[in-house]
Amino acid sequence: MRCPNTRRQRRGFTLVEVLIVVVILGILAATVLPSFTDFSGDARESALKQNLQMLRSQIEMYRLEHNGKFPANGSTTESDFIEALTLSSDTNGTTGAIGTKPHGPYIVGSVPANPLNGENSVTIIATSVSAATPDDSTGYIYNPSTGQIKANSTGVDADNVDYDSY
């Protein structure tokens, strides 16, 4: 015959068991979380590459439809560049409301923001785009005489490639 007091029923976890589970979860979180933070940087870099690819293709499309002239050719103002890509235009580059001219718009809305610095403005330069030093003050650097555009972003990606060389 058994004595009812010698056998104890367990109704929960002991403090030691709970601490072991918490420590194991902490170790797993410490190994997994850093990889998730890298994904956000990779996503921004990928978005920048896609934005630049889209801008370059639309600049080239503009050139093809405007007798070899790039958007804002002969101008030094950002507004001329933005209007050339976001409004309709004729073959001479004269802009007008959407639908009033035979060409464009090439970008709907506005220039996409540079995901690395959040800027969607454009610095217009007359020198080589590759020689321009990025300073994060605007989203992009553009030369209207050559049609070259690059990110105005300092820093390097995970492969040690300068952002402004994308």
In summary, what is this structure?
The chain is 36% helix and 9% strand.
Structural account:
The protein has helices at about 15-65, 80-85, and strands spanning about 90, 95, 120-125, 140-145, 150. The chain has a domain at about 40-150. The strands form two sheets. A three-stranded mixed β-sheet has the order 3-4-5, covered by helices on one side. The chain has a two-stranded antiparallel sheet with strand order 1-2. With about 170 residues, it is of the alpha+beta class. A hairpin with a 4-residue loop joins strand 4 and strand 5 (about 150). It is elongated and about 95 Å long.
User: Based on DSSP secondary structure assignment, what is the total number of beta strands?
Assistant: 5
Structural class: alpha+beta
Strands ordered across the widest β-sheet: 3-4-5
Shape: elongated
Main beta-sheet annotation: 3 strands, mixed
Order of helices and strands: HHEEEEE
How far apart, in Å, are the first and last alpha carbons?
A: 83 Å
Average pLDDT works out at 90
Number of helices: 2
Rg over CA atoms: 28 Å
Protein topology:
Elements: H1 15-65, H2 78-86, E1 88-89, E2 95-96, E3 122-124, E4 140-143, E5 148-151
Parallel strand pairs: 3-4
Antiparallel strand pairs: 1-2, 4-5
